[in-house]
Structures are given as C-alpha cells and as structure tokens.
Amino acid sequence: MPDNLTIIGTWPRLPVIKPRYKKAVGTIFPNLSTIVVVPGIHATQRVELIDHLNNERQKKGQPKLSKQEEDKLIEDGVDLFFEENNILIRPQPSRMDLVFKADELLQIVESKLRIKFLHATDKDVLIAIKKRGECWRINPLPRSAEEIIKWIQSSKTSISHGQIYYHNMITGTRYLTYENFASLSKLTDPELAVQLDEIKIYSGKLNRSDFPEVSFFQADMSFNTQLFAQYDFLKMSSEELRRVFEELREKFESAVTPEMRYEAFDNLKWRNLMYSALISHEEGEVADSILRGLSPEYFMQLEWLPGGRFEKGELIFDSIFDEFERDPLSPELIAICDIKARSFIFNFMREYGDIEYINIARVSSSLSERGFSAGHRGVYLTEVVIPADSKPIVKIIRMQKWDVWGHLNEGKTLGDAMIEAAEYSEYVLDRRLACRQIGMNLPPKILMHRLSEIYNGTNNVYKGQTIWSTYFERDYLPGISTDKISRIKYKNKDYSHKFGWVLGKAAAANMIIGRTKSEIPNTLFVLFDDGDEIVVEDDNGIPSYIIIGDPTGSFGNYLSPLENFVESYAKPIIKRWNYLPEPLDFMEAYLDGFIYEFSEIQNEYRERRRAFDTLFKHRKRHEGGSLAYRWECVLQRLDNTNPMDIANLIRELTINKVNNQKKEQVVDIK
C-alpha cells in the first residue's frame, strides 16, 4: 500500500485475478487518508477508527478525542463494499464532495475500472455523478432472470456471525427471511444464543441513514424487534433457549404468508420482492432508470461510456483513457473506452458551445426484433445539459451502415471507399426526404456529422490510417415501440381500438414505400412493427400517433405488386389476436386506418403529381436500383393500387389464419 494511505485491518484483495476480493465491507475516511476493513459493519468500523486514533494519541501523551471530534469523524466516513471484482462506494447525497474525494483516494490502490458507485436512486447523487460524465461508473443492475438470481445470492452476508441476511447496500438494511431464521435450529446452544443476541441488538437499531440495521423480510407488524428485546439470550439455559427460539420461529412463520416463507428462486413473486428490497429505498419499490422517462426497451440495454466532465467551461477527459493508453490490450478497457465518445463530445461542443455535462451510452443490442445487420453499425444515446436550459437534451446517434470502414473491409481502395460512403450518405438523406414526401411520420430533424477514426479493420493496406465516418443524430422519441407494448394495455378497449387505427395508418405508408430487409428487389421480408415504430400516447394514456424512428429498408422492394405484401401486414393483427379483448374490432380499426392513410397519400399524389414526379429528376437514374428509379416505380405502384382490395385481402387472410390456428388447437387437445 502507498505510504500516504493507512489501512486498519486486512485489505481483502485476493492473490488471483477473478475474483479479486473477498466479500467484505469497508469505511474510508478521505480527510485522514485511512481505510478501515476490519470485520463487522460500518458503524463498528467507525468505532474501530476512533479506538485506533485514541490509542495513537495515548502513546503520544495526548488527550482522547472529544465527543465533537468523534462525531465529526463518524460523519466524515464513506461506506464501501468489496464485491468479487469491484469496490462499491455508497454515495451520501449531502456529502458528494467527500464521496468523490474518497473515490480519488481509492484510485491510488485500484484501477478506476474496478471502483463503482452504488445505484444512484437519489436524485442529488445521480446529478452529481452525471455532472462528472460518469454514469458509466454506476454499478449496473442485473439484466436477466439468471443475473437477478445471482445478484440476490451474492447479497447474502453476515454481521459478526452466520451469513443469514440479505443486504441492501443502498439503505444498509439486512433482511432476515423466515427460512434463514428457522435454519438457526441447527446451531449449537452457544452459537444460537449469540446469533439471537445479534438479531436482538441490530433489529432494534437504525443506521446513520435512519434505516433499520436488520428487518424481517415480508413479516407483518406482529413480528418485530420488541419480541427479542425482552430476552437475555446469553444467560438462558439450554432448555429455555430452545423453547424461546421455537416460540419466536412460530411467530415469524405466522407473520409471513406461506409463499414468502421459503427462498424459492423459481417463485417469481418471492424473487421479485426480494430483488426490489435489495435495490431500492423501500421494500417493494423498484429503483428508477438513470434517464427518467426513458422507454422501457432502452432500460437495461444501455452501456454508459467514459467521456469527460466540464470545469469552468474546460473539458477534462475521463482518466480511464489514461489507463487505456498504458494498457491498450486490456479486453476490459477496450470494451469500455469507446473512442467515438470523445468525438461525439467534440461535435456537441461545436454545436452547443457551453455544456454543463454530457453522458454517452452505447445501445448494447438492437432493440428491434431483427437485430443488427451487416455494415459499420453502432447506436448511441446521449444526454446533454447546457447551462441555458435545465432540461436535458437527449439524442440518438446511429453510425452510417455502409461507410468508409466497411468498404475498406471489402478490399476497396481508400478513394473508392470514400466516394461510395459519400454516395450512400446522400442516398440515406434522399431516402428520408422521399419517405416524408409520401407521408411517413418521421422525426422532424436529423443531422449528419462526421468523426475521425483510426482504421483497424481487415484491409492491411490501410491499417493505422485516419478515416472519416458518418453518423446521423436525431432527437430521442419519447414513447414505446409497437412491438413492446404491455399486454395489459390492450385490456383497455379504447386503447386497443385507437392503437389499431394508428398502426393501420403507419402500415399504409410502410407498405407504399416497400420497406423490406433485403436490398435485393422483389424480396418480401417486410420491416414493420418490429422496433422502429414508436407509439406516442396522449395525456390519458391513449395512442395519439406513431412516429418512425428509423426508416431503414425503405424502397427495398419497389417492383412487387402490393398484393404480395398482404401476409406481412396481416401479421400485426394475428400475433395480437389471442390477447385482445375484441380482436375483430382491433382488426377493423387497423384496416380503417390503413385505408384512410393509403387513400390520403394516393389522393395527394394524384392532385400534385408534378411535385412528386420531379422530386428526384436531378438525380442519376438507372434501373439497377438508383433512388430516382425506385421512386418512379413506387409512385406508379401507388397510383395503380386499390387500398380497399388490399384491406379485403388482409381481412380474409387474417380470418383464415386465426380459424386454422383454432382448429390446430382443438386437434392438439384431442
């Protein structure tokens, strides 16, 4: 350990890479450059520090610390938790300056990558961390059922004796379940007496944050600390100890509903209630997302990245990048240090001038059903706050699919790669213009930017070459993807009817422009209702309209008759059929919306043909698939299609499919 850092106790670092630490608690005192890691809880570690200092003062012939000095020391401590691979800091809302000082002190002995902040459920804590551009350091919550189970299991802890508690590291409360309490019957008499005495002491105490040190999980008010307070367990005879324990066990059992008595991880209710108790301030209250108001499909899908913070208008890049420069081959540092983040920050500074703080996240997986496709992909979410506006500016950034990097990987020269990438950028923007002309509801503004990267792809000729990559930036759309709407919402007939109408309207424009996955003409893998369509609800929670976040695949199919698309546009009805309160009403609302919107677009074209026909006359036209040619074909197909005929075909196909499914179910039952 460094000479300027005092460790009281044994530092829990293991002599292996994984896990790095023994599970333990610690308390750091930044103003004294001291860390206490003796067994116990944070309160007893503070007492340990006071005893240590008084002993040192006594050796020097100095008086003991005064009560005022002791109280100051207690307040100046910051709680730590040593997990398997990380040191977790429990932030104090009113002392974030002290918390960050503790963080910097810990970085003397451990990589910043290993030091994280506990879940920032407190608003003041969250803002303080955001202002440092360090959302990436908030300890992430589990993302799957398996991770939640592991999380709960890893929360098992002790105070001074057995590991019988589940520990909420935010509040400090340790939860004792009925099953763990009942298991104490296996202890010897002396062990049982000591364990019951510990429960008696700590269930009657509040910690520094005014939360109970020990709480009885899911027990009603009939089982409480007063039942323990009347006994002196350490002085009981063996017979009396066992009798009292059995009485307490029976009372605990009666105070808990049967399904909450046993730690059954396959019991969803038990698992969810325990998980909520361990990640929030109150039992049963689930912690909020870092970005409040973020759509559910983004929640748990964001990987926050290191960026930088602003002090007096000056940008200070995160020091983790210095670690990366010292160890550029570290897989963990490679994964977290996304160099694009720094370029995004530069561009935001050029766009907005003064910035109070900025945080950047990478979308860890595609939010659409189809997943990420080939090409130079990457989707990011950014939150920017400028001093003149207290409301955060939330943006979605999407890297251009076919860019210089991707073309170089195909073996092309740098010159050809740059030309083809620029042509594709123009194609993407023209395609967006065409979608808006047809009537597709898109975000009102999209910005194209470029950033420089060091090429490190498969084309060895250009490795190490600086290249420029294109990305598109748009406002974040508040709402929820059509494919991720909770089934509960459909139980509201007004909701399902209006949703059917707006979904049908969106389907019309989507069909007209032939939005498909493959870029090969005449393929029919339709892109619709799979992640890009965002439902915006009114103040009453009823769908108001649908906006398309990204029109990827538009004009992918421009030659096939629209009748060939019928099955794909019946799918949104069929897949919801079994959980709609009135599926026939939903279907008719969907078809009414489809016919209405299709007819509106068709009439607009027929009334103002020249505006449509000449839109891309200045662009190169070739039948190999230029946008000008695709546009011409799409308009001709629009003009020659009867929306009523398409709607009737969708209706007929839907009814036939649903009836066939019912027949198959009957056969299966038999």
Molecular structure report:
The protein is of the alpha+beta class and about 675 residues long. The protein folds into four domains: about 120 residues; about 150 residues, no CATH class; about 170 residues, no CATH class; about 190 residues, Phosphatidylinositol 3-kinase Catalytic Subunit, Chain A, Domain 5. Helix content is about 40%, strand content about 15%. The chain contains 22 helices and 21 strands. A six-stranded mixed beta sheet has the order 1-3-2-4-5-6, with helices on both faces. A six-stranded antiparallel beta sheet has the order 11-14-15-16-18-17. It has a four-stranded mixed beta sheet with strand order 7-8-9-10. Helix 5 crosses helix 10, helix 17 packs parallel to helix 19 and helix 18 packs across helix 22. The longest helix has 27 residues. The termini are far apart. About 5% of the residues have low confidence.
Rg value: 31 Å
The CATH C-level class name of the largest domain: Mainly Alpha
State the CATH topology of the largest domain.
Phosphatidylinositol 3-kinase Catalytic Subunit, Chain A, Domain 5
Order of strands, main sheet, comes to 1-3-2-4-5-6
Strand content: 15-25%
Give the overall average pLDDT: 88
What characteristic shape results from the CA principal axes?
A: globular
Number of strands: 21
How much helix is in the residues? 40-55%
Low-pLDDT segments, ≥5 res: 282-289, 367-375
Number of domains: 4
> What's the N-to-C terminus distance?
73 Å
- What oligomeric arrangement do these chains adopt? single chain
CATH architecture of the largest domain: Orthogonal Bundle
* Discrete helix count: 22
Largest sheet, in brief, is: 6 strands, mixed
Return the structural class.
alpha+beta
